[in-house]
Amino acid sequence: MPRPDDQSSPPADGAPRLTPQQRFRRLAWLRIIALLLAALLGALLSPQLPAAEPTMPRVVALQGHLELDYSIRVSVEDLSAWAADNDVRSLVPFIDGRALAGNGPESIDLGNGQLVFHLRISEDSRSVWTDLLGSPEGLRRPVTFSVGPVDGSPFPSVHDEHHRVPLTVISPVYGGIALALVVFTLLAFVHLARSTSIIRKPAAQGLGPYDLGRFQMAVWFFLIYLSYTAIWLVTDATDTINASLLALLGISAGTALSEAVIESGAAPAADETDAPPPAEGMRWPSGPLPAGQSRSRLHAARRRLLQDDPAHSADASQGLLNDLLSDATGYRFDRFQIFAFTLILGVIFLSDVYNNLSMPELSPTLLGLMGLSSGTYIGFKLPERR
User: Fold this and answer.
1) How far apart are CA 286 and CA 370, in angstroms?
2) Of 243, 238, 190, 178, nearest to 218 (Cα)?
3) What is the pLDDT of residues 313-331, one digit of tens each?
4) Which phi and psi angles does 345 have, rounded to 5°?
5) Residue 3: its H or E element
């Protein structure tokens, strides 16, 4: 019969008694579960800290002239760290926050954090360069500058809104030389137009009236001449003359040529029998010509005799506008039409070149309109000369 103090005997309620090892294991499992629950609860309740962002490169210096067709050297901090996970060859310059696609680095120095770019116009960056250089207000304009991935955002830069750098629109050296040549050409033309028959009708004496066809040809020549020079100065492009401009020059040249043919066909032959009668008190040279003297010298002598003859002053100029808009019968609408179209299209032409830095493409309809105006003018010349 067991003793009352025997430890191995079951408890009075009939439940099995745990051994010390079993109690220890149970307590250990309870502690492990409590620790796991505490860790899980702490993870759920503790604030989430943001992950550390990688260090962004920063543009700290720019060496060289920021000008089209020039090379620049850019210093970038932490470039080597960024290059560990990114392609450095995808970097392009950013001017005023716009990427210059197709202007990748020509030289990369990761050790010193330096990149070399050659600024040029590509098909992908033409619109950006047009916005940057078009409508110039001076030789230079201040811009922001940075570099960055061509399909991303620019890096932080010291050349931000508060520390802009000058972008050269027109080189002062080449711009000064071109300006001097253009001004000299214009002044020379104005002098010749006033003192010679470069855009006038031929006259028997003195200076004849201004010719509308030659005037139109001169206007389009100088518009294209000035525009070509300006586009070359800004963009360094030399192949800017398009087919529509050649057609426009052909229309103006054809108008002047047709008018000259009509004038020469209706002019009297230069002979003694149809020469104008001498003024009172004047006598033509008579008798046989000396040996070696040509008929042209005789005609020149006749013109000198007619210089003081008031009866033949109808061929003299009556002023630029009067000569261009009127003839012997008075003012003519066909002349006014071609004169007005030439002026307004010239203004539109210059405006397009100034804003877009390219020669405008004239539509076939517009060229047809110019041809119709010129043809109308030439058509009215035929009965006039008869």
Assistant:
1) 51
2) 190
3) 556 788 899 999 998 888 9
4) -70, -30
5) none
List, in sequence order, the alpha helices (H) in the chain.
Answer: 20-45, 79-83, 126-133, 172-195, 212-235, 243-266, 295-305, 320-325, 333-356, 364-385
Distances (CA, A) of 179 to 96, 155, 172, 189, 364: 29, 39, 10, 15, 33
Residue pair 169/354 in contact (Cβ under 8 Å)? The answer is no
Q: Given the structure tokens 């253009």, which residue do they identify?
A: 182
N-terminal to C-terminal alpha carbon distance within the chain: 162
Local structure of residue 105 (DSSP, 8 states): -
Size of the chain, expressed as the number of residues it contains: 386
Residue at 355: amino acid letter:
N
Domains annotated on the chain, with CATH: 58-169 (2.60.40.10), 174-272+319-385 (no CATH)
Structure tokens at 199: 């855009």
- DSSP string covering 175-196: HHHHHHHHHHHHHHHHHHHHHS
Classify residue 74 as left (phi > 0), alpha (psi -120 to 50) or beta.
beta
Give the tens place of pLDDT for each residue, 218-241: 999 999 999 999 999 999 888 999
CB 120 within 8 A of CB 101: no
What is this structure's pTM?
Answer: 0.70
* R_g of the chain computed on alpha carbons: 44
- Contact in structure between 231 and 353 (CB atoms under 8 Å): yes
Q: Which residues of 218-252 are buried (b: 16+ CB within 10 A; e: fewer)?
A: bbbeebbebbbbbbebbbeeeebeeebbeebeebb
Digit-coded pLDDT (tens) for 28-39: 777 788 777 777
How large a percentage of the chain has pLDDT more than 90?
52
Q: Three-state SS for 172?
A: helix
Two tokens at 300?
């020149």
Residue 168 · residue 139 · CB < 8 Å:
yes
Contact 274, 268 (CB under 8 A): yes
* Closest alpha carbon to 227 in 178, 180, 173, 188: 178
* Distance of alpha carbon 136 from alpha carbon 67, whole angstroms: 14
For residue 48, give both structure tokens.
């989430």
